[in-house]
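Recall that a protein's primary structure is simply its ordered list of amino acids. Everything else, from secondary elements to tertiary packing, is in principle encoded there. The following example makes that idea concrete.
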Amino acid sequence: MTDDLRLYGYWRSSAAYRVRIGLNLKGLAYDSVPVHLIRDGGEQHHPAFAQTNPQKLIPVLQHGERLIRQSLAILEYIDEVWSDAPSLLPATARGRARVRALSMMVACDIHPLNNLRVLQYLEREWHAPQPERDEWVRHWIREGFDAFEALLADDPATGTFCEGDQPTIADCCLVPQVYNARRFAVDMTPYPTVRRIEEACLALPAFDAARPERQADAPAI
């Protein structure tokens, strides 16, 4: 692995999962720096990591002396810096706008409502028991996927992947969110297009290698 790129992440973080997929699609080698989100109160809260990201969130990509935060910003950064590799965004303005919109549906609308810190707050401040917290997650994933499925199924731009026949940032975002949906036992039957695209993505080595269970910091089964 190169010393030039370091990814601070966690094996089960869907935001870090997005970036792993993007790095793999671009063919970029990187060093993984695990940040355990649970152990010792969450290593993301430790002062050393807070200097890396004052938000105390992952992922963070270190490129030389530069630190890039937020998964969508990281994905666009690597796409621009390594522009000669397969592009993560379509060539047309319309296509790029659609891919960004789909990506933001996941990264800005679905995922934040079922992020770890939200669930911990519901438990700590509102004493919400586990079944209620799990149903909270399922509700917001279903709300998001209802719209995501409709936008995919009703648009002729949808191909093998979310936009055409080449994976984009939208697919980098979708696959980890489907992983989360399955983790929380969301019924995926109503989302045939989402399921078809997930299957096509996971058949690619870049997606397969990024799976949470394949990461070095994943617990042994």
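Residues 88 and 168 are 4 Å apart (CA to CA). Residues 93-207 form a domain with the Glutathione S-transferase Yfyf (Class Pi); Chain A, domain 2 fold (CATH 1.20.1050.10).
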